[in-house]
Amino acid sequence: MRAKREYRNREGTEVAVLDALVDRADDGMTVFELRAAVEVDIDELEEALSTLKEDDLIVVDPGNETVIKPDERVVPEQPSDENDEQSIVDWIRERLPF
User: How far apart are the first and last CA of the chain?
Assistant: First the structure.
């Protein structure tokens, strides 16, 4: 999953960090996991994280391991129930006489 469109006009590393965090929005990621996912050097990652934190686009949850999560406004909304949406196959089946 990708960060919302309005947050994609940032520097490439920042967007890559947001996208990685959005993919794991519930669990968050450690700095090491982010570094592996984004594949940049630690200084570039640190700068991106600092900027995102200043802009309140990430939340840092200190604990045994520091976990970083995206702010809720960055995560695209999920449909509340995917079963409510009718697939094209279901639509065709309803219209065909059997």
Answer: 39
